[in-house]
Amino acid sequence: MKKLLHVLNDFEKQAPLYLTNNQMVSEANVGWHIMHSCLVITSITKAIMNSDPTQYKKKFSWKAFFVLLFNKIPRGKAKAPSFTQPASEISEDIILQHIVEARKSASLLLTTGKSKYFTHPIFGDLRVPTAIKFLYVHSYHHEKIIRDILQ
């Protein structure tokens, strides 16, 4: 969880640069990457909080295994679901509000049952400890993209 919170702190520092873009790295600007990551954190947390642990389906996924083992998501291989794409106008204030919500959501995960889960469209059902690691790997993936945009 410390690593995820560290990435959120980095996002807060990068928020003033939200309009910065580099088409050679990404079609989206810095603000989009920050908001997308925060939307993923809040939406996954909601799904976990509303989950019924008795409905969990264990299924091994090689993709999840390698992503979580190497802490790396390949670039350009997946498209973000619409509910995790920023729909509203992006401003520094809105980004900072999303970061605050993401921090609150991440903190909720520490207080919920470890057997709760969410269903990832590619990786399948991920319980809370694995979900927290996924949220870090996903957020860090976007932080690396942001760093490349800012170079």
What does this entry look like structurally?
The protein is globular, with a radius of gyration of 15 Å. The protein has helices spanning 2-14, 30-49, 62-70, 92-111, 128-150; strands at residues 117-120, 124-127. The protein has one domain (2-13, 28-150): Four Helix Bundle (Hemerythrin (Met), subunit A) (Up-down Bundle), CATH 1.20.120. It is mainly alpha-helical. Strand 1 (117-120) and strand 2 (124-127) form a beta hairpin.
- The percent range for helix content is 55-70%
Instruction: Determine the CATH topology.
Output: Four Helix Bundle (Hemerythrin (Met), subunit A)
State the distance separating the first and last CA atoms. 28 Å
* Rg over CA atoms: 15 Å
Shape: globular
Count of discrete domains: 1
User: What CATH architecture label applies?
Assistant: Up-down Bundle
CATH domain class = Mainly Alpha
Mean pLDDT comes to: 95
Question: In order across it, which strands form the biggest sheet?
Answer: 1-2
Uncertain parts:
none
Number of helices: 5
Biggest beta-sheet profile: 2 strands, antiparallel
Strand content: 5-15%
Give the ordered list of helices and strands: HHHHEEH
Report the count of strand segments: 2
Structural class: mainly alpha
